[in-house]
Fold this protein.
Amino acid sequence: MAASAHVSKVRSMYKRILVLHRFLPLELKALGDQYVKDEFRRHKKASAEEVKSFMTEWENYKDTLQAQVLESAGEQLQSVKFGADLSEEKFNSLQEEQIGQLYELMLESTKSKRQFDIQEERK
């Protein structure tokens, strides 16, 4: 029973994050959705200790993004700053692989010419 409750909690957070991404500019939404999907998939077989840390960090991300989305209500997306600064303490606690992922994410999010040409659907 505990396993199914955990799966339900993970799935609920995953879905909530994807819903929050709908409020991001299209380029960030595409990048964020892909990153979330990859990370959750990558941690399916993680140890209990890793899962605890993983869930805590994603919960913090969800709360931060939710607060920023609510604050930005009614403003133009281009003028809203999403995200948060990474403290030196938090940065120093990252593993080498995580630093590499963070660097790749930074490069992708600051590219002037993105890998995909994302356009809003016309209704």
Notes: The chain is about 65% helix and 0% strand. The radius of gyration is 16 Å. Helices lie at 2-21, 26-42, 48-71, 88-92, 96-110. The first helix runs from residue 2 to 21.
